[in-house]
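Aim 2 progress. For Amidohydrolase family protein, the working sequence is reproduced below.
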Amino acid sequence: METIVTGKKRNEDFKNSDVSLIDCDVHPFLTSLDELVPYLDEAYHKQLNIGRFRNDLLKDQNNGGFEFPKGRYSNPGHVLRIDAFTPSGGVPGTDPKFLARDLFDRYNTTFGILNIGHGTMGAHHNVTLAAEYTRAANDWLYDSWVKSDPRYKMTMEVIPLDSQLSVKEIERIGKKPGIVGINLRVVNIPFGKRHFWPIYEIAEEYGLPILVHPDAENTSEYSASQAIGPASTYIEWHSTLPIIAMRQIPSLVFEGVFEKFPKLKFAFIEYGFAWLPHLMWRLDKNWKGLRQEVPWLKMPPSEYIRRNIRLGTQPIEEPYKPNHLLEMIQMVNAEEMLLFCSDYPHWDGDNLNRIFLRFPDELKRKIYFENALQTFRF
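Predicted structure tokens for this construct:
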């Protein structure tokens, strides 16, 4: 029987080892939905239009078939880096061995956290089908990637529209070595609502942080439009993604999630972080005048944010004077909140050797390794 090592014991071991970098956002891709055939009951093969049923649409024009939830917006260039295609010409992010050489070996990466990059069905209207797809995708990612290289770790997908199905999926695989977090997709239910609390309860029990990453916001499936409605162009949608995090964090704080689950961490990845001082200052100011509405809060909102919220560094903001970025982090004592993310193999990934040049070594150590070590369940 395999021994499950607790997160605390692992963290103590790693503190004594020569570890340099944890990349918190690496994207693997399916080459085709057919890769999921071994993980799905055949009844779902036809619903997903995969395997031997893949050409049914061509045979029967009246068969509505299945369409994977697609984004509304298209990058006018290419969303994937053209220098990351595999040696055989495969799509970037589809070859575990090549990705390990191209990214991990190049930057001496100790661990890379895999967050599915080809899209999910977390917000799909057919919840039963979404649950089956999610289970299959989790097993595919674990077998094809995590088992291929000890440096690969992964976040597991869950079903945000059904918290009970999410809990069952976490119970099924949430204690597997190599699974270090839970990927919760955005739907039209704010994260502070009690709908999600069963997920938070088991996540805290298992020591798994909640990772939030753009996905469903780019589809028409139960996704939250960015504050005032859908964008017209890719540049507008991509530029306004931080609004999602700025809306979700107050929901988590004011609904009392971090008072109820004090050890739960939330990592917002690919939403930037330069908006953080404004948000923390505004929430603290309003709390001073309106705290009678949220009597369950025992400390200012900014303290919950520092304790429970983590933010990915990518896509990093680039002020006219580079030193201003460091000053902004220091203004709100956010040194322990930032996680290094390469976003490999996406077009707007950040280069490790350039983006933190003006940061002191102590802060770089926290961003590169220590903050992730304390956030994810290694």
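The domain at 7-375 is CATH 3.20.20.140 (TIM Barrel). This observation will guide construct design in the next reporting period.
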